[in-house]
């Protein structure tokens, strides 16, 4: 099996070690004998995203979001084609915000989103930001489990009908709703940096599995060879305890 990944704007959208997600993906595929090829795509580069099994877009500050938005909007039809052909999409923070209706940044400037989904993001009052460690109870195609991460965003995302999880500790999409991220079976968006995959190997595996189903539709999550995650799970439980989430 081969997993083909396109890492979008790898050179500017990499806050708080989001690239660690790609490193974990590589290691967990190799340990299972799955070939993995990670291609990158910078502003202005020609790329057909529908040719990939997974598209990843990490987080970035307002400045980077402004830098890339014209390029991203120009790719809207191609991203739609990718989604329609079951390319899985994984988005973190600044990337997640740009798939919604719009983002009003810390200077009150509006960045139009791709408008694939109904959610929208506006900066918090008086520049207040959601910062710190976070624990959520997530639900991925019926699989419920706890996940941990780190968040740092001023943007308050609202109108999310299908969240990634329930917030147990921390903030999530905004200060009030107690829900985190977005998941609709094809696109996973989250505020969890940290990065997400090293802290939550089950989510890394879920993304590998979902992405592979584009080419191997009969594959089941349980078909992925189990790996030894005892160290990762120990670290995760430690963090959950410190957050009083278990
Ligand atoms: N600029 C956005 C915000 O502050 C996203 C930041 C991020 O990706 N961490 O909300």
TrEMBL record:
Catalytic activity annotation: beta-D-GlcNAc-(1->4)-Mur2Ac(oyl-L-Ala-gamma-D-Glu-L-Lys-D-Ala-D-Ala)-di-trans,octa-cis-undecaprenyl diphosphate + L-glutamine + ATP + H2O = beta-D-GlcNAc-(1->4)-Mur2Ac(oyl-L-Ala-D-isoglutaminyl-L-Lys-D-Ala-D-Ala)-di-trans,octa-cis-undecaprenyl diphosphate + L-glutamate + ADP + phosphate + H(+); L-glutamine + H2O = L-glutamate + NH4(+)
InterPro entries membership: Class_I_gatase-like, CobQ_GATase1, GATase_3, Lipid_II_synth_GatD
CDD domains the UniProt entry points to: GATase1_CobQ
Gene Ontology molecular functions: carbon-nitrogen ligase activity on lipid II; glutaminase activity
Protein name (database record): Lipid II isoglutaminyl synthase (glutamine-hydrolyzing) subunit GatD
Catalytic residues (UniProt): 93 (nucleophile), 193
GO biological-process terms attached to the record: cell wall organization; cobalamin biosynthetic process; peptidoglycan biosynthetic process; regulation of cell shape
EC nos: 6.3.5.13, 3.5.1.2
Gene3D superfamilies assigned to the protein according to its UniProt record, in alphabetical order: 3.40.50.880
Pathway info: Cell wall biogenesis; peptidoglycan biosynthesis
Binding partners and assembly: Forms a heterodimer with MurT.
Residues where substrate binds: 129
The family this protein is said to belong to: Belongs to the CobB/CobQ family. GatD subfamily.
Domain CobB/CobQ-like glutamine amidotransferase: 4-200
Pfam short name (any one): GATase_3
PROSITE patterns: GATASE_COBBQ
Function: The lipid II isoglutaminyl synthase complex catalyzes the formation of alpha-D-isoglutamine in the cell wall lipid II stem peptide. The GatD subunit catalyzes the hydrolysis of glutamine to glutamate and ammonia. The resulting ammonia molecule is channeled to the active site of MurT.
UniProt keyword list: Cell shape, Cell wall biogenesis/degradation, Glutamine amidotransferase, Hydrolase, Ligase, Peptidoglycan synthesis
Primary gene name: gatD
């Amino acid at each position: 099996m081969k997993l083909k990944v396109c890492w979008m704007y790898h050179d500017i959208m990499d806050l708080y070690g989001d690239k660690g997600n790609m490193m974990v993906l590589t290691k967990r595929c190799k340990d299972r004998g799955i070939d993995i090829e990670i291609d990158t795509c910078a502003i202005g580069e020609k790329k057909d995203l529908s040719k990939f099994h997974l598209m990843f877009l990490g987080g970035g500050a307002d400045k980077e979001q402004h830098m890339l938005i014209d390029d991203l909007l120009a790719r809207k039809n191609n991203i739609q084609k990718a989604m329609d052909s079951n390319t899985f999409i994984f988005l973190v923070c600044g990337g997640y915000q740009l798939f919604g209706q719009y983002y009003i940044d810390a200077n009150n400037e509006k960045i139009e989103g791709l408008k694939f989904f109904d959610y929208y993001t506006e900066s918090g009052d008086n520049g207040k930001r959601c910062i710190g460690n976070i624990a959520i109870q997530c639900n991925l195609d019926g699989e419920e489990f706890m996940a941990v991460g780190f968040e740092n965003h001023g943007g308050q995302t609202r109108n999310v009908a299908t969240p990634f999880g329930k917030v147990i500790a921390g903030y999530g999409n905004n200060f009030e709703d107690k829900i985190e991220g977005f998941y609709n079976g094809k696109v996973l968006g989250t505020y969890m940096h940290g990065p997400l995959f090293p802290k939550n190997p089950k989510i890394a595996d879920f993304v590998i599995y979902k992405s592979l189903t584009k080419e191997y539709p009969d594959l089941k999550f349980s078909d992925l060879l189990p790996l030894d995650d005892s160290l990762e799970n120990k670290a995760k439980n430690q963090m959950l305890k410190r957050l009083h989430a278990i």
